[in-house]
Amino acid sequence: MPDLFAARAQMATSLAFHIIFACIGIAMPVLMVIAEWRWMRTGDPIQLALAKRWSKGTAILFAVGAVSGTVLSFELGLLWPGFMEFAGAIIGMPFSLEGFAFFTEAIFLGIYLYGWNRISKGAHLFSGVLVAVSGVASGAFVVIANAWMNAPVGFELLAGRPINIDPIAAMMTPAAIPEALHMTIAAFVATGFAVAGIHAWFVLKEPENPFHRRALPIALWIAIPAGLLQPFSGHMSAEFVARNQPAKLAAMEALFTTQRGAPLRIGGWPDPETRTVSLGVEIPRGLSFLAFEDVNAEVAGLDRVPRADWPNVRVVHVAFQIMVGLGSYLALVALWALVLRLRGRAVHTSKWLLRALVLGSPMGFIAVEAGWTVTEVGRQPWIVNGMVRTAQAVTPMPGLVIPFAVFTLLYCFLGVVVAVLLWRQIVRTSPMGEFMATSEFRVLPLDGRPSGSAAAVRPSRRSRAFEGLGE
Amino acid sequence: MSGLGLADVLAGLMVAALTMYVLLGGADFGGGLWDLLASGPRKAAQRELVADAIGPIWEANHVWLILVVVMLFSCFPPAFARFSTLLHIPLVIMLVGIVLRGSAFTFRTYDSQRDDVQIRWGRTFAIASTLTPVMLGVCVGATISGDLGAVRIDASAYDIYVAPWCTPFAFAVGALTLALFAFLAAVYLTVEALDDGLREDFRTRALGAGGAVGVLAFLVLVLARSSAPFLWTRLASEQWALAIHGVTALAALTAFWALITRRWRTARFAAALQATCVVWGWAWAQFPYLLPPGITIADAAAPEATLRLVLIGLSVGFVVLVPSFWYLFRVFKRQPGPLPE
After folding, report:
1. Is it the case that residue A363 has pLDDT exceeding 60?
2. Of B158, B136, B103, whose CA–CA distance to B30 is shortest?
3. CA dist list (Å): A294 to A288, A289, A299
4. Best residue of B139, B161, B341 to probe chain A, by most A CBs closer than 10 Å
5. Hey, which end of chain B has fewer CB within 10 Å, N or C?
6. Residues 32-71 of A with CB under 8 A from B
7. Which has the closest alpha carbon to A295: A304, A285, A303?
């Protein structure tokens, strides 16, 4: 395996792995805060059980996200020292801000997870809110650094070196808002529908269990608005790409020839050698309209780009179709759920909607992976669009296939472990255990002083003891 | 050394962040070593104390390392590029350790159905906690020995990517790092232990680790004479070096005295002071070089505009960070005790 390919594969694996945990870290705190807030308002113990159940999942996933994020920050230098030497001074700013947002997130997540009986209810809820806010902020800052790679601004080039660096202008790259918005909403779509799907499955299985019936609407509170907004933010991103990265748009749409009134291609398998697309459906003038709001607008094709500088058209086009297809499905399901609610029907009464939600459960995350593939592979062969080639940035270190193999195996292993753990600890165990913990929680004083025998019991033994009761 | 520039200030802040990582994150890794070495009649209680002590705070403490990395690549991009290119192998091993430490600890905390599974995760957590500080120290050792800065880019792959860090000196610094982290952890745990038996367990461990720190520091000095001439001349000849050695030694002796006479909080303060002096002693020894003997802070510094903004960003960030950290430690460290789930 050539070293450049191994480096790209390692970066792709690390990002593909981390992005799942990052999305969950952004959206999951919102769910637990809503459940906790509803518990405080209504005193409904099921809401508290939900908040605890979700925070347990968040704890596991956040830890894996934190350590895999650390790997990424080092990998920037381990794999792409040429890029960091060029860009470090320009995009250090969003990374520094991300550092502080991540600090806040980690601090208050620690307080949230371990502070149930150490701080007041209000302080506890507020810690959860801070986790949610800083989670969104840290995600947005990282994506802004990536946005700069797509639309590098805030410096001048002199003999291939950046001069007159203005880090604020770099942060204000025109890609920043469309990209950060699209990614943040994607985190809510993916997490919201994944959680909704899991609980929908349980509602179908155990219709009488109130736990899942109350979980479902909370998940939909974020899934419905995010699912409905995402097509609009996607459109905004596509308009940006059409104006700033025509080669990427051409690859997304498999548009080989520059033309006026370009059609929108749905599906299809592009062949870069013959410059044709087999199969697929064409909507006449659709692309010109979507990209430039004019059915006769000219859209640049790949023929404007030297053949050697094409991104991998097949990968980008297919990934884009997957993202749009899955996103559209989820938007339709969101609309369906919304209409049902507006008509005054509870979501869990429609079996077909529940089935549609179960089907959509993994789709958000698949769409996130596909979308990330579009933006990264679509930018190739550039690491800094139009300025630094990925091949120029890679480390001279030989044998990169070894770290690639090490991290791939490590992440596959962790992925399996996390899946098994979530299944065993969260999905399969009965929520009744948390019910018991709830009643115990309520007799504890809330002034921050754990007292009495109940607090002295170790959690592991406690949850084990309650497992028997729950089944 | 005429007048401190903006770049020097940021380098100083980077060392300050690293000091925080050593004092907080380092102790979390040290806790993992004590998990590995848990023994005696209170074996399980020792592990439980370690888990309770680091559970709520390790993720926040870990971010100090990310801050150091981000400052290094924002403010000194060429140094970061060279550092991470030449130290690729030890950094990858360290990262694997970081990943396994954090995830295994979380898996052990939340996967409580079967004891054999718990033991396996506990073992993984403990071994990763031991490996990571050694590799961190190896990277520091390779830097300060001057071997990293002296690498010629036309040398063989072995001479570029292995030789600078695969030295007895670098591994001695690695062992010293582990001993220092273990010492900090044991001293902190004497304050956090809930009963006297456990407190005595960790007192013994603190005294042992403190002794190891002394022996390894001496070994590092001895090895420095032949393998790290740059460091050796700095440490042996300059006035300030003697002063820092003096304060370090004084702090170490105070920590020992306080442990022997069971003044736990004094011991904690002295141990933290000692670790701080070790980090700053190293930083002063290589000042004004980032990668001695070639690359200075000024050589690698980013343009003034970036440095100024990062400094502003850090100042604003600290306004948020300091009260948050204070609150975190107030909630979990003022009244030590078992934690709820």
Report:
1. yes
2. B136
3. 6, 5, 11
4. B341
5. N
6. 52, 56, 59-60, 62-64, 66-71
7. A285
Query: Least CB-CB distance to B110: which of A59, A82, A165?
Result: A59
Q: 3-state DSSP call for residue B155? A: coil
Residue with tokens 């269990």: A209
Between strands A388-389 and A276-278, the pairing is unpaired
Q: How many other C-beta atoms lie within 10 A of the C-beta of residue A142?
A: 23
Question: For residue range B296-326, what is the model confidence (pLDDT) as tens digits?
Answer: 888 888 888 899 999 998 998 888 888 988 8
Say how far residue A443 (Cα) sits from the centre of its chain.
38
Q: How many angstroms separate the CA atoms of A135 and A115, rounded?
A: 19
With both helix axes pointing from N to C terminus, report the angle between A3-42 and A401-422 in degrees, rounded to the nearest 10.
20
Percent of chain B with pLDDT over 70: 96
Task: State whether residue A468 sits within 8 Å of chain B by CB.
Answer: no
CB-CB contact of A337 with A224 (8 Å): yes
Burial of B213 (0-12, 13-18, 19+ CB in 10 A): buried
* Pairwise pLDDT comparison (A257 vs B241), residue with the higher score: A257
Instruction: Please indicate if any CB of chain B lies within 8 Å of the CB of A424.
Output: yes
A115 touches chain B (CB under 8 A): yes
* pLDDT for res A109: 92
Report yes or no: A150 and A324 within 8 Å, Cβ to Cβ. no
pLDDT tens by residue, B34-47:
988 888 888 888 88
* Residue A448 CB coordination number (10 Å): 15
Q: Does A102 sit within 8 Å of B80, measured CB to CB?
A: no
Among partner residues A92, A410, A441, which is closest to B99 by beta-carbon distance? Answer: A410
Looking at every residue in chain B, the average pLDDT score rounds to: 87
Q: Closest Cα to residue B95, out of A27, A383, A414?
A: A414
Q: For residues A65 and A21, is the Cβ–Cβ distance under 8 A? A: yes
Of B60, B74, B338, the CB nearest to A455: B338
Helix (H) or strand (E) holding B24: none
Question: How high is the pLDDT of residue A452?
Answer: 37
Query: What is the separation, in whole angstroms, between the first and last Cα of chain B?
Result: 53
Q: Which two tokens stand for residue B77?
A: 């991009």
Among candidate residues B145, B19, B7, the one with its CA nearest the CA of residue B78: B7
* Residue of B237 and A10 predicted with greater confidence: A10
**How many other C-beta atoms can be found within 10 angstroms of the C-beta atom of residue A366?**
14
**What CA–CA distance (Å, rounded) separates A210 from A119?**
29
Asked if B327 reaches chain A (Cβ–Cβ under 8 Å), the answer is: yes
For residues A164 and A200, what is the distance between their CA atoms, to the nearest angstrom? 55
Q: Is B324 on the interface with A (CB under 8 A)?
A: yes
* Cα A321 from chain centroid (whole Å): 18
The pair of structure tokens assigned to B335 is 């009244």
Could you list the beta-strand ranges (E) of A219-295.
Answer: 259-260, 264-266, 269-271, 276-278, 281-283
Q: What are phi and psi of A458, to 5 degrees?
A: -70, 145
